[in-house]
Amino acid sequence: MNYQAIRAVLENPLLTAYNGLVPAVPVYFDNIMNDGSDSAKEFVDVNIQFGLTTETALTSNPTFVRGVIVIRTYTPKGNGPARNQVLVDVAATVLNNINNSAKPASGVYLRTGSIDGPAFSPDFGGAAPDQQSRRAFMPFFISRISAGFQAQVLS
Amino acid sequence: MSTVLSGTSGALYYTPAGTSVTTLTASAFPSSASDITVGSYLGFRVDDPVTLAYPGGATTTNAIPAGAYFVKTYVASTGIMTLSSTAGGSAVTATAQPSGFGSSFASITYTAPVVVGSVRDWSFEITRSEIDVTTIGQEVGQYTPFRTYIAGFADGTGSATVYNTDDDSNMANRLIEDVIQRQQTGARMKLYIDRVVVSGTVNDTSSRFINVPVILTSASLTVNPDDGQSVAINFRPSEAPTFDLSKSS
What we know:
The structure holds 2 protein chains of 2 kinds. By secondary structure, chain A is an alpha+beta fold.
């Protein structure tokens, strides 16, 4: 098992893609200090959760790593969805590229499931008035996409 | 610790129906120009990758050389084919017929199975019939006697579900059309359980797959407003499948 290698398959291309934008957009991964978001106009947050890691069998439990990646994109509130959708499209493209990669002979083979989203918040047209939500005080317009994944660490 | 393979390791490759001619005599080849008489109403299409092979001992001086080609033209009604060295290139020509086939034949066959894109799933089942050879008159004891069986003929069925895409080159379209292709010789499924790619090329040594000549038995198209368009294709072996379930050989 190598959770770090699996995480790298998802995080490295995301970091490369957002760093390649002009201007580069900060990306914060799990447990990395978000020391710039107070002043940053836009940034991306990536959260990876591992779910079931093994399958239960009679004699020994073979590995079968599954998890979910959640990518949240933060852009200035009140400016419309366009910039946010441009940024979230970068993440969706990265996930699609990962999904289109063929299985190598060694390393990590990871494929995502269907991409869910983007879902946007605050929802200005939703049933619960945004003014009643604590998110009303958040200065960002946030989109969220997520995808389950399956990973195999190849020997 | 072993790892469970998920379905995402799999793939479906297909060799189109009617793309194998293995009984070509020397007279099928041109003594001039480029027309090869391969037979009528086969399944060849323009730009299909094919391999021309002559029998051992054949003389091919000034004939179309053996090797890998692309179908330049194929007229189903006449059975005349021309070949090109590159897809869309000019037709290869000869100035003499090959000779010395003896009792053997030349062949033109689809070069290699091609990946079918947008495959949702495939399944393959192999079965054996059972022959009851229970005899009466057994000596009875504490427990009731069991019936006795021997294994009979093998059979199999397979299926694949393929999404319809807006891609003209998708081999899935050909799979559908091949169901009603009268001559299905050459149709073959390569069912990858674990497709491994090395340096951009599928490595069959490291991969695991089932290779099976098939006949296509049905194609069921589903079009509704709620789901992605898909086609369910059924097939069954026309010969015994071969298994390569090892990743080291």
